[in-house]
Amino acid sequence: MTPLARDSAELLAIEALSWLVGNDELLPVFLGSTGAGADDLRQRAKDPEFLASVLDFLLMDDAWIQMFCDSAQYAYDLPVRARAALPGGAEVNWT
pTM to 2 decimals? Predict the structure, then answer.
């Protein structure tokens, strides 16, 4: 698996965040699991660590990744490749 360039990974994660904000069912789950509030979404939208947490959240469920990727017409492996390029990405260990 080849990670994306850092700037491309951040752009994909921002797209994922935008998609998540528009998802009335998943947004409350994300906010509840991360402790983030609406202000955090706006203020930290360009913070690479926060963007990594968005991808971490989506990567918890294959169905969520499929929905996001289908909406953006991305390959299903693109979010995990983006995650690898963001802070802590090299430390992800899926067991």
Answer: 0.88
